[in-house]
Design brief:
By secondary structure, the chain is α/β, with parallel strands linked by helices. It folds into two domains: about 130 residues, Ribonuclease H-like superfamily/Ribonuclease H (Nucleotidyltransferase, domain 5, 2-Layer Sandwich), CATH 3.30.420.10; about 40 residues, no CATH class. Helix content is about 40%, strand content about 15%. It has seven helices and five strands; from the N terminus they run ββαβααββαααα. Helix 1 packs across helix 4 and helix 2 packs across helix 3. The longest helix is centred in the C-terminal third of the chain and has 22 residues. The protein is globular and about 55 Å long. The N and C termini lie far apart (about 45 Å).
């Protein structure tokens, strides 16, 4: 069972991102404040859940959360400021749009930049340890998946409805054959592509 809170008595927002390791599309981040008594046995790191459970939990999180927000940073901004800074910026934007201001941010991973005067703690593999971070991981993942499925209608050749922009063998082969789309990240490509494509 995941932990309900990091520090008792504080308004905690769990923060996580999705799409950091992708070749195409934006990076998404979510921030979630859960009720202190929130419990759900299915809740876990989004990567450890089936797609069906992720979407089921998304509905529950949206319904029961005290506050939640999902934001994105597009591939052009990612190329401009790099994926780490873009991921952190997306988290900042998500926190900024919460209808309740937290006084502690639980960040999945080991890197973050302070936001306003809100205290934060970085937790490696936090999405498998704390409910609020797990909830954020599910929202970020499902909203980004939906975005990439819709984007695949514009560029079906890359099969984003299947790979969601991640560097699968098929995705890489499609890039090699057809080049990069306007949604691909120029700054983050496998070495084989860097050698073969004219950026």
């Amino acid at each position: 069972m995941l932990k309900s809170y990091y520090e008792n008595g504080k308004i905690e927002a769990g923060c996580d991102e999705a799409g950091r390791g992708c070749l195409a599309g934006p990076v998404f981040a979510a921030a979630v404040i859960l009720p202190a008594n929130f419990k759900n046995e299915m809740l876990n790191d989004s990567k450890k859940l089936s797609e069906k459970k992720r979407y089921l939990l998304r509905d529950i999180i949206i319904k029961d959360a005290l506050a939640w927000s999902v934001q994105q940073i597009d591939n052009h901004k990612i190329d401009e400021i790099n994926i780490l800074n873009a991921s952190i910026l997306a988290m900042h934007k998500a926190v900024d749009l919460l209808k309740i201001e937290p006084n502690l941010l639980l960040i999945d991973g080991n890197r973050f930049k302070p936001y306003k005067n809100i205290e934060h703690v970085c937790i490696i593999k936090g999405d498998g340890k704390y409910s609020a971070i797990a909830a954020a991981s599910i929202l970020a993942k499902t909203f980004r998946d939906d975005y990439m499925v819709n984007l695949s209608c514009e560029f079906p050749i890359y099969e984003w409805q299947q790979n969601k922009g991640y560097p699968t063998d098929t995705h890489i082969k499609k890039i090699m054959a057809h080049g990069l789309s306007i949604y691909h990240r120029r700054s983050f490509q496998p070495k084989a592509l860097q050698l073969s494509l004219n950026f």
